[in-house]
Design a protein that fits this description.
2 domains; ABC transporter involved in vitamin B12 uptake, BtuC; 327 residues
Length: 327
């Protein structure tokens, strides 16, 4: 039965992903629709349709899929690390730490390598800070964890505002749009796709350890799991996923909260299922959100982070209202 249930889940996700990509390729302010998208995929479309669909819409959709998957996997890892279903990169300030570091690198005129490196360092620093403060004297509570994340996120938001105030005026609009999530120039999905594949495979291979760690550090240690070293693996994986997502498309919130929670409702808590299913569902969600962001008010584009927040905020409030113990 569990095998049949997971097969149904992944078959459904495959159909959803296929539909979302068709929706993305067939939607836009230009005149290319579903028939043109299918013809382009079959190699029989006209040259203008090929250029629009295969060189513009398809790379953007692939980037959205990869970034959504990375954010969802980062959410899964953070929820295991902190043993809290409300943990995710945006709420806990990890995305903010990466964004602040990336903005500093951009203002200093550093190369893309250093932008990525500093973003990774900022994400890792924010994650470590949340973990160390929330852990306190040896245990953490949802209240302590969430308060720590909210305070850190507010601090990074203040730092971001300060950096924007110091930015040259000609760069300000682009930086603001990027901070709200912008896929307008996201046409190189290879790096994100490779990282998503590696993290998903690594998560599946480490699913047993993730399952054990999710039950508590003491029980994990009793069962022989090297808790400290494995915890560093989770730190690095979640921080790297967040940093690459932020440097690629900016700050996008709530994907790492919404997707893992819904997957656990459907499929349970076995990370052999949760990790790959979250990667696929997170990718599909962001493809849909990005497509809507560029079509709702076409030819103007909305920040994709605004749409994911519109989905994530109500769900976050529902989750908060259902948690009874905040000691």
């Amino acid at each position: 039965m569990p095998g049949q249930k997971s097969m149904v889940l992944f078959s459904g996700l495959a159909l959803i992903i296929f539909a979302t990509f068709l929706f993305a390729l067939a939607s836009g302010s230009a005149g290319a629709g579903l028939a043109d998208a299918l013809a382009a995929l079959a190699g029989t479309a006209t040259e203008p349709a090929n250029t629009l669909i295969l060189e513009l819409r398809l790379p953007r959709a692939l980037t959205a899929f990869a970034v959504g998957g990375l954010l969802a996997v980062a959410g899964v890892l953070m929820q295991v690390l902190l043993r809290n279903p409300l943990a995710e990169p945006y709420i806990l300030g990890t995305s903010g730490g990466a964004a602040v570091a990336a903005l500093v690198a951009i203002l200093l005129g550093l190369s893309s390598f250093w932008v990525d490196a500093l973003a990774f360092g900022g994400a890792l620093f924010a994650t470590l800070l949340v973990f160390s403060i929330a852990h306190g004297t040896g245990s953490w509570t949802p209240t302590r964890l969430l308060l720590t994340g909210v305070v850190l996120a507010a601090g990074f938001s203040a730092a971001t505002t300060f950096l924007l105030a110091m930015s040259p005026e000609q760069q300000l609009r682009g930086m603001l749009f990027w901070l709200m999530g912008d896929l307008s120039f996201a046409y190189e999905p290879a790096r994100c796709l490779w990282l998503l594949g590696l993290l998903t495979i690594g998560g599946v291979l480490a699913a047993r350890q993730l399952n054990v760690l999710a039950r508590g550090e003491l029980q994990a240690a009793i069962l022989g799991l090297p808790v400290n070293s494995f915890r560093y693996f989770v730190f690095v994986g979640s921080s790297l996923a967040t940093a690459v997502a932020v440097t690629t498309v900016g700050v996008i919130g709530f994907v790492g909260l919404v997707v893992p929670h819904l997957i656990r409702i459907v499929a349970g808590s076995d990370h052999r299922i949760v990790v790959p299913a979250s990667a696929l569902a997170g990718g599909a969600l962001l493809v849909v959100a990005d497509t809507l962001s560029r079509t709702i008010m076409a030819p103007r584009q909305l920040p994709v982070g605004a749409l994911t927040a519109a989905i994530g905020v109500p769900l976050f409030l529902v989750l908060m209202s259902r948690r009874q113990n905040y000691r």
